[in-house]
Amino acid sequence: DVKVTQSSRYLVKRTGEKVFLECVQDMDHENMFWYRQDPGLGLRLIYFSYDVKMKEKGDIPEGYSVSREKKERFSLILESASTNQTSMYLCASSSKRINYNEQFFGPGTRLTVL
Amino acid sequence: AQSVSQHNHHVILSEAASLELGCNYSYGGTVNLFWYVQYPGQHLQLLLKYFSGDPLVKGIKGFEAEFIKSKFSFNLRKPSVQWSDTAEYFCAVNAPGYSTLTFGKGTMLLVSP
Predict the structure, then answer these.
(1) CA B95, B52, B101: angle at the middle one, nearest 5?
(2) Can you name the residues that pair with A74 across neighbouring β-strands?
(3) Cβ–Cβ under 8 Å, residues B67 and B50
(4) Contact with chain B for residue A41, Cβ under 8 A
(5) B83: helix, coil or strand?
(6) Taking 80 as the threshold, does the pLDDT of residue A87 lie above it?
(7) B106 to chain A, minimum CA–CA distance in Å?
(8) If B91 and its partner were Cys, which of A23, A38, B16, B23 is the partner (CB 3.0–4.6 Å)?
(9) Is B43 helix (H, G, I), strand (E, B) or coil?
């Protein structure tokens, strides 16, 4: 069974703080993704990575950065958190070896920025 | 660029009613299509997928979806819903060989007992 874990289920931070969200997958997947989920907006892709140290911008990368130093771990960084980054953050992974690229999701981190 | 449109943001049904959630996509080439479900408090999980072959796809928990290429549609159906089907449903699409998925905005289904 694929397992994608995220470091926190709930996080409360103050405006201006640096925030790290961690994601780990245990299925040796090449691809990893960070989304934010907001009511009425669905899932929007922030960044993704298709290999160690590789990253690509998604649809809404502004205000975020990512790090992938190891294959199993993908971190999302908010350099200076702002209130409009209050959201649910979802991590996902998928294999390059399967054509249809099903993504497996973690439980999410609900981030509140005060 | 791909886009996905889900017709209804909220659907309310009584138990045993039939369900159909609409999904249309815009992309000219071959596509892979997915329906994901998110039960309250749980993580997003795959309900069913289409990537080739029979356009009528059966998934978990009695759900099915039909790919109609001429209509660019992939509607989700279930003949008789249960209270436990209360969840948010997301349609998603990608092109074969591409890693990223494009998601619709989701449909919140509430099934009343």
Answers:
(1) 25
(2) A23
(3) yes
(4) yes
(5) helix
(6) yes
(7) 6
(8) B23
(9) coil
Q: Is A109 on the interface with B (CB under 8 A)?
A: no
Cα–Cα distance for residue pair B113/B101, rounded to 1 Å: 34
What distance in Å separates the CA atoms of residue A64 and residue A76, rounded to the nearest whole number? 7
Question: A20: closest CA among A73, A96, A84?
Answer: A73
B94 close to B102: Cβ distance less than 8 angstroms: yes
Rounded CA-CA distance B102/B94 in Å is 6
- Under an 8 A CB cutoff, do A108 and B43 touch? yes
Closest to B104 measured CA to CA, from B76, B83, B81: B76
In Å, what is the CA distance from A106 to each residue of A24, A43, A90, B9, B106?
9, 13, 6, 24, 18
**In this complex, is the C-beta atom of A32 within 8 Å of any C-beta atom belonging to chain B?**
no
Q: Residue A20: which of A74, A83, A93 has the closest Cα?
A: A74
> Could you tell me which chain B residue has the CA closest to the CA of A50?
B99
Amino acid A27 reads M
For B34, the token pair is 């997915």
The per-residue pLDDT of chain B, averaged, comes to 93
Task: Quote the tokens at residue B56.
Answer: 């009528």
Q: Least CB-CB distance to A103: which of B42, B101, B105? A: B101
Q: What is the mean pLDDT of residues B17-29?
A: 93
Q: Give me the residues paired with residue A105 across strands.
A: A92
The string of pLDDT tens digits covering residues A23-58 is 999 999 999 999 999 988 999 999 999 999 999 999
Shortest CA distance from A58: residue in chain B: B100
Chain B residue whose CA is closest to A38: B105
